[in-house]
């Protein structure tokens, strides 16, 4: 995983709440067996509408998405994170994220920055008044800077550390492989198995 | 030991705990399917890692299989299914492919085989894994990176969830079902209300539910935003499990029940949040909008966004009505549907089919309405046919299909056309979920069947009584 320290890019104001993962990437795009190429399915239904924000040339190349509360609800599909990252997003800012989406994001290196809804409103206004303006998201200091706006954001310490270091989850767990083996030695015999191991 | 049920199961699965780091939690059962697993297997291959416990891993094909006879025609769906088969072969994982006697929706298959048992940790790359919580298991959906993590280590690094008690006390009225309970819970706490929580459903109305009804309730915990939902195991749970293929037997059964008996929320335990629902006040519930929290009793009307105080919610309601093609103030019972779908991991089990068939028996699906009945698994289909339910559906004019996820998420050919309206026993009414531009009303199997007969959203109580058997014969 690529380490994340600080990112500056064009901010995209998405004035919608409850953006579920079916909207981020509809099921018809889930049939691939790779992790790349999902950018064409990102917000596919909304992108058919010319007035949708990603169809506005001013926001082309946007990499910091600013969305309403409850972003990423619904299906657990990690394709939602791949689609956002394949499109070029590195950060999503919202006042509240769905749990599975936030977990999936952290594992792929997409930063989910939690700010107050008031700060979201400020960022929306700024980005709508200054189309194409940049937003800087600094993970070390947990600070978002856009024009005159300076806002702190929340991200849990463990995810932040992993993002800053670019650490792979499986490798981290396998450092404790003896603990797993010890636990397996003590599992009750009545626990089911699918097929003889 | 003090604490809630979810906390107890958690504690029993901690492999390693360290300050400032997530706990490493052991996973007892890992279910996989064709859509969220290919990239995970690819990750293993790239890193040269084996599947640690193929004996605790089970694959089935469900999300994009066709429900009409014949091979998969969509080349991309075929690639996913073939990729799953190849991966299972390469990594030694048991798979129930299309056409197999055990194939079906992953959340129907686990319980019916007796693989889902109390006190287990169960994960799957599918958010409706919460279904298995009905057995008093801690079961939750994970993303593909986590699927890879579990395949490689049989564990997950996780931070503890908060716990919420959902007390449903009192008795349900006739014709009110588990689906109505959970839709009412979601409407009450909202689609984000459960975020970060494991919901424990408690109270008399929950205790009185069958295992299959409990699965319907736990299934839609995710629609309330929760990571998982569970119900403490009891005699109903043990009776369901005993004798199933993978249930313990003999001395092991006794040992297991002894352990399961300890799986209770301690009397002194404190939940992080509590929600109370009076079961006696519930009526058949349907959704009118484009998220599962936008629901109302069937007797109500389409709400007026202008009367919703919260501005964000009002805007969302306005957009939902525009998408759904509905006008504020229209009685929900007057909404005409084009399609009725009975099936999915929410309501595709035998009891759901029995409920729908009981309404349809001796009646006809209304002219111009298409009804699809899709069993949750091959076993459910066989059982339904043995009971004559398949014939009831076909005699009523419904299509009796092969098992799979089908129109719940329209990854196979079962889709709504743009602006086509459905009454669906599935779990999500998101824009486009059942097909581009499709309009979904979430309902119980009873409401689905009654709606198919009348052609508008209805409960069985709205149907004209059937002529008595004596009057019809001879």
UniProtKB/TrEMBL annotation, chain A:
<comment type="function">
    <text>Catalyzes the isomerization between 2-isopropylmalate and 3-isopropylmalate, via the formation of 2-isopropylmaleate.</text>
</comment>
<comment type="subunit">
    <text>Heterodimer of LeuC and LeuD.</text>
</comment>
<dbReference type="GO" id="GO:0009098">
    <property type="term" value="P:L-leucine biosynthetic process"/>
</dbReference>
<dbReference type="Pfam" id="PF00694">
    <property type="entry name" value="Aconitase_C"/>
</dbReference>
<dbReference type="InterPro" id="IPR015928">
    <property type="entry name" value="Aconitase/3IPM_dehydase_swvl"/>
</dbReference>
<keyword id="KW-0100">Branched-chain amino acid biosynthesis</keyword>
<comment type="pathway">
    <text>Amino-acid biosynthesis; L-leucine biosynthesis; L-leucine from 3-methyl-2-oxobutanoate: step 2/4.</text>
</comment>
<dbReference type="GO" id="GO:0003861">
    <property type="term" value="F:3-isopropylmalate dehydratase activity"/>
</dbReference>
<dbReference type="InterPro" id="IPR050075">
    <property type="entry name" value="LeuD"/>
</dbReference>
<comment type="similarity">
    <text>Belongs to the LeuD family. LeuD type 1 subfamily.</text>
</comment>
<keyword id="KW-0456">Lyase</keyword>
<keyword id="KW-0432">Leucine biosynthesis</keyword>
<dbReference type="GO" id="GO:0009316">
    <property type="term" value="C:3-isopropylmalate dehydratase complex"/>
</dbReference>
<keyword id="KW-0028">Amino-acid biosynthesis</keyword>
<protein>
    <recommendedName>
        <fullName>3-isopropylmalate dehydratase small subunit</fullName>
        <ecNumber>4.2.1.33</ecNumber>
    </recommendedName>
</protein>
<dbReference type="InterPro" id="IPR000573">
    <property type="entry name" value="AconitaseA/IPMdHydase_ssu_swvl"/>
</dbReference>
<dbReference type="InterPro" id="IPR033940">
    <property type="entry name" value="IPMI_Swivel"/>
</dbReference>
<feature type="domain" description="Aconitase A/isopropylmalate dehydratase small subunit swivel">
    <location>
        <begin position="1"/>
        <end position="115"/>
    </location>
</feature>
<dbReference type="InterPro" id="IPR004431">
    <property type="entry name" value="3-IsopropMal_deHydase_ssu"/>
</dbReference>
